[in-house]
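Module 6 notes. Inverse folding takes a fixed backbone as the condition and produces residue identities as the prediction. Think of it as a translation problem where the source language is geometry and the target language is the twenty amino acids. Below is one complete input and output pair. Work through it position by position during the lab.
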């Protein structure tokens, strides 16, 4: 089964982004209150990010319902808006190795009447597809003539275990979703970081699946383009497809059908989350290794500790629901599985945590929205930041020199909608250094929210 759920709780803006995707019976959990990824320039002087306003429950497919802004923050002080639009969704950005280029994905949004038409088309596709059972038998097999049991008493019935990765069930579901698929003409934008001018635009087809509104929102929250070390290819995961795009030639490479992909620091390996496993795929496409892990894996909890070592955050399925950090090498060897001794905090089933690890490997940050833990490498907590009723922290991002951690502060001000109000900088041990206020978007561009065309499925878990 593939399921995407946007949880809506009346009056609770922090719960609206509780999204989970079930593939082959396993839940992928996203942090319930997050924002799009940020990135530092290679010299650490500039921070690039995208934010959306309002941070609310309205339809994300409709043009004019939200404002997206691409911004650059220089020296933790000067804020510059590179692009502001209500007609496109903008993904989080990525810097080129020399810091001269900035890339991100731009996706066109639809007018309200086109959204309604798309919803009807997707319903029709699903109805027609479900009308055909591709695996039904033309005739049922005859029952056995003997009433004797087929399996001797005391002997367990035969079982079939799928050891494929991805599993057969998940692969079939992906095939079904491809048939019902909604695809949009996305564009990879490359800009000059000094002038802000557009250097190149590379169109590519982006599959949004059979629930495009939810997939578009989830993509906004998770896409993090990464340049290869030579600056020729950009790696990203769109619509659960891990791929690379060459902005110069327009060529594309597809590596995996997975929940997420993260390029290694040396650019030679892509780490992917595939159901209950982590895969390591060489960027030359010549080899791939998969390793199953215990617990439910966090899509926002994957970070490289070195070119050959990956950390993956998991929630154990025992009664206590402990958080464990798995450390793996690119050959699939598990180096360690470390239970994190975290103080009591709010997380919930939909809040799996966002993990960031300093490039020097000495410190980690684990964010759960209202609770943020600044930790040493061994998992000992140096500081526990806790927000008040209307505050959240999201997307911890280390500077290249490991001396700063930037985070997005989300708040609800004066009974208005929730949004990113500041970018806050901390030391690796959690001491606040500075914060830069983010002004509101041009609200004149944002049109009133249209009535919902897709009733949201209610989650029993509530906010994270």
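Target side of the pair, the amino acids:
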């Amino acid at each position: 089964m593939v399921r995407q759920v946007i949880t809506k709780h009346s009056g609770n803006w922090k719960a609206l982004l509780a999204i989970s995707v079930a593939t082959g019976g396993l839940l992928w959990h996203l942090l319930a209150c997050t924002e799009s990824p940020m990135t530092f320039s290679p010299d650490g002087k500039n921070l690039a990010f995208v934010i959306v306003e309002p941070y609310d429950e309205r339809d994300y497919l409709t043009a004019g319902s939200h404002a997206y802004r691409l911004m650059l923050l220089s020296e933790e002080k000067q804020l510059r808006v590179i692009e502001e639009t209500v007609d496109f969704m903008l993904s989080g950005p990525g810097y080129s190795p020399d810091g001269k280029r900035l890339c991100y994905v731009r996706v066109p949004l639809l007018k309200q009447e086109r959204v309604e038409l798309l919803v009807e088309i997707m319903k029709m596709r699903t109805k027609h597809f479900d009308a055909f059972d591709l695996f039904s038998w033309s005739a049922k097999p005859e029952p056995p003539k003997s009433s004797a049991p087929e399996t001797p008493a005391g002997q367990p019935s035969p079982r079939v275990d799928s050891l494929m990765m991805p599993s057969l069930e998940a692969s079939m579901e992906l095939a079904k979703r491809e048939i019902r698929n909604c695809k949009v003409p996305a564009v990879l934008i490359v800009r000059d970081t000094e002038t802000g001018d557009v250097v190149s635009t590379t169109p590519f087809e982006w599959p949004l699946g059979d629930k495009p509104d939810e997939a578009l929102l989830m993509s906004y929250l998770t896409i993090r383009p990464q340049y290869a070390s030579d600056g020729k290819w950009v790696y990203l995961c769109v619509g659960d497809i891990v791929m690379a795009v060459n902005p110069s030639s327009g060529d594309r490479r597809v590596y995996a059908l997975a929940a997420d992909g993260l390029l290694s620091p040396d650019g030679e390996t892509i780490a992917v989350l595939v159901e209950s496993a982590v895969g390591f795929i060489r960027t030359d496409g010549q080899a791939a290794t998969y390793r199953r892990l215990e617990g439910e894996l966090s899509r926002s909890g994957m970070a490289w500790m070195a070119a050959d070592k990956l950390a993956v955050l998991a929630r154990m399925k025992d009664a206590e629901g402990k958080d464990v950090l798995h450390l793996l090498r690119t050959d699939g060897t598990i180096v360690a599985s470390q239970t994190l001794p975290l103080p009591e905090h709010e997380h919930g089933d939909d809040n799996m945590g966002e993990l960031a690890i300093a490039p020097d490997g000495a410190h980690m940050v684990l964010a759960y929205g209202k609770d943020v833990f600044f930790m040493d490498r061994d998992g000992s907590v140096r500081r526990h930041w806790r927000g008040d009723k209307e505050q959240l922290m999201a997307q911890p991002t280390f500077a290249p020199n490991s001396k700063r951690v930037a985070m997005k502060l989300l708040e609800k001000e004066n009974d208005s909608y929730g949004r990113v109000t500041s970018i806050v900088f901390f030391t690796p041990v959690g001491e606040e250094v500075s914060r830069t206020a983010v002004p509101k978007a041009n609200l004149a561009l944002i049109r009133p929210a249209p009535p919902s065309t897709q009733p949201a499925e209610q989650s029993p878990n509530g906010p994270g």
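Reference fact for the lab report: The two ends are 23 Å apart (CA to CA).
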